[in-house]
From TrEMBL:
Organism: Aquitalea palustris
Protein name: LysR family transcriptional regulator
Cross-referenced InterPro entries: LysR_HTH_N, LysR_subst-bd, WH-like_DNA-bd_sf, WH_DNA-bd_sf
Every HTH lysR-type domain range: 1-58
KW ATP-binding (keyword) present: no
PANTHER family found in the cross-reference section: HTH-TYPE TRANSCRIPTIONAL REGULATOR (PTHR30126), HTH-TYPE TRANSCRIPTIONAL REGULATOR CYSL (PTHR30126:SF39)
Length: 304
């Protein structure tokens, strides 16, 4: 079995589409169909059932994808990284993710790539937009607080951060001394990432705090904006620890201790496997994984 046939199979399997796989692999649809037909002859079993819209994998396809999918991705990434060592990897690298994460966590990790003359283009977007833009191949790498749920994408956990309930000292004092924290929170303005309030609701649920009718005074998809308002003495919110560490140390903000425990937010590096066939992107992904894990380890050490 050729590597090209196996890659073609994986693309068709992940996209459930001959035409979609052809676009991703820069092949014609007849060429993709021939690769699949040749693979079916080689293993002696049909891999897909053709439908009016797309294809449906058979049990044999499920078994083959389980056996080779991740191994093939790893092999191609390793080959691309090896090529990058001897190839000119200069060029553009498009990255999409949460604005505050890109600015405060990712930017320091980009230095090695920038020194290699890779031109980085950062774009802000929330979790659903990151997924959509990666699938449509408008961007090379994505960073999201949402785990990968689409089988066409791959992701790796790069950071886990505690979520802290924070406010300016005067507001924090009122919340800390309140006999009923839920009622006290309702009495103060809430600043939130969006109206869905997933981080906030999770924290409240874990700490068994009842605060019905909680409506944000302000929503904004850059948590640094919320932090700025808090520093002016307005309202309360929940922030990842890395976004408020310096303000807590300086006394500009204070944490309101959770009654039952902290929640966490997790950040993932996400990519489309076919993108890793490009040496620049494979090299950038590996470099950023190493850099982010290294910088995170240094931050953990400095905070102990």
């Amino acid at each position: 079995m050729s590597l090209l046939r196996l890659r073609t199979f994986i693309e068709v399997y992940r996209q459930h589409s001959i035409s979609g796989a052809a676009r991703s692999l820069n092949l014609t649809q007849p060429a993709v169909s021939q690769h699949i037909a040749g693979l079916e002859v080689a293993i002696g079993r049909p891999l897909f059932v053709r439908q009016s819209q797309g294809v449906l994998p058979t049990a044999a396809a499920d078994e083959l994808a389980t056996d080779i999918g991740d191994k093939l991705d790893a092999a191609e990434a390793a080959l691309s990284t090896a090529r990058a060592r001897s190839a000119d990897i200069a060029g553009n690298l498009h990255i999409i993710g949460h604005a505050d994460f890109l600015a405060e966590k990712l930017a320091p990790a980009l230095v090695p790539l920038l020194k290699e003359e890779i031109r980085v283009r950062l774009h802000a977007g929330d979790g659903p937009l990151v997924t959509q833009m990666l699938l449509e191949e408008h961007y090379d790498l994505g960073f999201s607080a949402h785990p990968v749920t689409d089988s066409r994408l791959k992701g790796e956990l790069i950071l886990s951060e505690r979520i802290l309930l924070v406010a300016a000292p005067a507001v924090a004092q009122r919340l800390k001394t309140a006999s009923n924290l839920g009622e006290a929170l309702l009495a103060e303005p809430l600043l939130a990432y969006n109206l869905e309030r997933s981080l906030i609701d999770h924290w409240l649920e874990k700490n068994r705090i009842h605060a019905p009718g909680l409506i944000p005074a302000l929503t904004g998809q850059d948590l640094r904006g919320l932090r700025s308002l808090l520093s002016q003495g307005f309202g309360w919110t929940l922030l990842p620890q890395y976004l408020c560490e310096s303000q807590l140390r300086s006394g500009l903000l204070e944490e309101i201790p959770p009654p039952h425990g902290h929640t966490e937010i997790r950040y993932y590096l996400i990519w489309l496997p076919s993108k890793l066939r490009k040496p620049r992107i494979a090299h950038a992904r590996q470099t950023l994984l190493w850099q982010l894990h290294t910088l995170s380890g240094k931050a953990d050490t400095s905070n102990t």
